[in-house]
Amino acid sequence: MQSTKVRQRRIARAQRPGGPEVIEVAVEDLPEPGPGEALVRVEAAGLNHADSLIRSGGYVVTMPFPLAVGVEAAGTVVAAGDGAGVALGSRVCGTGWLGSCADHVVVPVERLVPIPDGLGFEEAASVAHAGAAAGALTRVWPLTGRRAAVWGAAGAVGRLLVAWLSRNGTEVIGIAGGDRVDIPALLGAAHIVDRTAGDVAVQVREATGGRGVDAVFDPVAGSTFRTSLAMLAPRGCLINYGQLSGAVAGTEFADLFNAGGVFVTKFNAGAYVDDYADVTALIGEALHLAVERPEVLSPVAARFPLTEAAAAYRALESGAAGKVLVVPGLSQGDG
Ligand SMILES: NC(=O)c1ccc[n+]([C@@H]2O[C@H](COP(=O)([O-])OP(=O)(O)OC[C@H]3O[C@@H](n4cnc5c(N)ncnc54)[C@H](OP(=O)(O)O)[C@@H]3O)[C@@H](O)[C@H]2O)c1
């Protein structure tokens, strides 16, 4: 193994299911990368809503506790196990890096994505997870030459999704709120809808000559589900990929019949990618898109030192407008 001089690391763990208060930062011996693994010094870890759902203990994805929190980060390779085939000093990012809220994390090399010139660590840590999701989402429903509405079109996933779908020849209606409403147009959306300015389904129907859209991408769930059904064209598809307002309750087959024989799916990213090589290819594509079109990058809403990981998750969960990062190199009070 090639190695670093550092002997210990700090890592954030949720001690039990619960809110951000269950997160504690431990100091422990630095793990050694095994065969096919790399040790990455984390420069920036991106926080994601799924981290919070999994930590709550009440989500469809369950993990054992204590749980090392975070899945997304960007950093520098500082050591590599046998056969890893990765150069020390490489700038890398990715998702599926379990326990990324740490100053060092061991990652299987197939989950490392090179950061292209022109992008910094914070930018890469803001794009990796969203890029994998947005890329896989474009595979769900055939949409070239058709229309789609995207909720949260100014969010991390939404921005990439709008840009990706528009580039693929989909007429996109970007839905955003308040002062972020102009952002989807910068990313290629043909129409924008301000969700704070009246009935969203009515606005979407107006934008489509009354027909509605062939697909709706909805990360919100509980509070938007019926509105999403109401904006679909006959035989359209509602693609739910998150539950920012809680789970959907009380749906009947009759609702789908009345909406025009529509389809509804709960997106499972794993069902739309072949393997990690496929995931890293999607992230690579998203990173290059971010180099070409910096507007796809969600702005950084807040940076926290690792010692304040719990506060960072509190910021994410209170609706920060933009990406929340944990930056291990920051000292307490710097954020
Ligand atoms: N399944 C997967 O593989 C996967 C992967 C990544 C993310 N996700 C999910 O995707 C969702 C978005 O993640 P993200 O990282 O893009 O989050 P984000 O950057 O925080 O963006 C979320 C967007 O949703 C909008 N929003 C929030 N609450 C809303 C509400 N009540 N009604 C309508 N719009 C609302 C906000 O936009 P406005 O206020 O401007 O409307 C915000 O820009 C999350 O649910 C996350 O769990 C899933």
TrEMBL record:
Residue ranges annotated for the Enoyl reductase (ER) domain, each copy included: 18-326
One GO cellular component term noted in the UniProt record for this chain: cytosol
InterPro entries: ADH-like_C, ADH-like_N, ER, GroES-like_sf, NAD(P)-bd_dom_sf
Gene3D superfamilies in alphabetical order: Medium-chain alcohol dehydrogenases, catalytic domain, NAD(P)-binding Rossmann-like Domain
SUPFAM superfamilies: GroES-like (SSF50129), NAD(P)-binding Rossmann-fold domains (SSF51735)
Keyword terms, alphabetized: NADP, Oxidoreductase
UniProt key word Oxidoreductase: yes
Gene Ontology molecular functions: mRNA 3'-UTR AU-rich region binding; NADPH binding; quinone reductase (NADPH) activity
Protein name: Zn-dependent oxidoreductase, NADPH:quinone reductase
Organism: Saccharomonospora xinjiangensis XJ-54
